[in-house]
Amino acid sequence: MEQIQTNSRKKGNEGEEIAIEYLKSLGYKIVKQNFHFGKVGEIDIICRDGNTLVFVEVKFRKSDIYGSAIDGMTKSQIISIRKVAEGYLYINKITDIECRFDFIGIDLIDGKPKITYLKNAF
């Protein structure tokens, strides 16, 4: 089981690094990566788009055997991400700020990443 988690985390890190470079190319400032809120869950990337705090979920697929990266998003994950975002705001005493939830799907096609970016995804 540990080997599977290690491989999954390695793949996740690879996808997140691609996503971070993409977000930086758009002028976003990365605030935090892999923010955990207890057992509630994790947010992959927290960044700023101007004055907006953006919580970003990243899905990375090396093959389409389980569908595209965008197919990997579930309703329960969305609920968890929202709760983790509330936790982040609470812990950091952040109030009165515009927030947004974005999604980045990365599908490896012929060895090259194809990025799907959805602003205000959920």
Summarize the topology.
Blueprint: H1 2-25, E1 29-37, E2 41-49, E3 52-61, H2 75-91, E4 99-109, E5 112-118
Parallel strand pairs: 3-4
Antiparallel strand pairs: 1-2, 2-3, 4-5
Helical content band: 25-40%
Largest sheet geometry:
5 strands, mixed
* CATH topology title: Trna Endonuclease, Chain: A, domain 1
Determine the structural class based on helices, strands and strand pairing. alpha+beta
How do the strands of the widest beta sheet line up side by side? Answer: 1-2-3-4-5
What string gives the helices and strands in order?
Answer: HEEEHEE
Distance between the termini: 32 Å
Mean pLDDT: 88
The coarse overall form would be: globular
> Tally the helices: what do you get?
2
Uncertain segments of ≥5 residues (pLDDT<50)? 1-6
CATH architecture: 3-Layer(aba) Sandwich
Give the class-level CATH name. Alpha Beta
Total DSSP E strands = 5
Radius of gyration: 14 Å
> Proportion of β residues?
35-45%
Q: How many structural domains in the coordinates? A: 1
Give a short synopsis of this structure.
This protein is an alpha+beta fold and 122 residues long.
Record keyword descriptors for this entry.
122 residues, five-stranded mixed β-sheet, 38% strand, 34% helix, 5 strands, single chain, Trna Endonuclease, Chain: A, domain 1, alpha+beta, 2 helices
Description:
It is a single chain. This protein has 122 residues and is an alpha+beta fold. Strand 1 (29-37) and strand 2 (41-49) form a beta hairpin. Strands 1-2-3-4-5 form a 5-stranded mixed beta sheet. It has a single domain (2-118), classed as Trna Endonuclease, Chain: A, domain 1. It has 2 helices and 5 strands.
